[in-house]
Amino acid sequence: MTEHDFNRIESALDIKLPQPYRRFMSNFPIPALVRNSQLELWDDADALIRENLALRDNNGHAPQPWPARFFRLGRSGGGWVHAVDLDTHE
Predict the structure, then answer these.
(1) Bridge partner list, 82
(2) pLDDT digits (tens, 9 = 90+) for 25-64
(3) Which residues on adjacent β-strands are paired with residue 70?
(4) Of 4, 7, 9, 46, whose Cβ has the fewest other Cβ atoms within 10 Å?
């Protein structure tokens, strides 16, 4: 992911992404999976924005809307959502 991607995500979701996440994702270690939105860790900014907004709006993704402090990172093959609590990171 690029700095532009991080800035778009932060602006669209009105959040601040943790620096460890930004560092890791800016050097995404698996070239064959660049721009993915199918695995545990997504690096597709558009998909991340779309899915995080859907979770907040409760578009059938969860029993209740997610608080803005949670940021979805991806999804496992079993349908489990991987997320980070932004309130626990600076």
Answers:
(1) 74
(2) 888 666 666 666 666 778 889 999 998 998 888 766 667 8
(3) 85
(4) 4
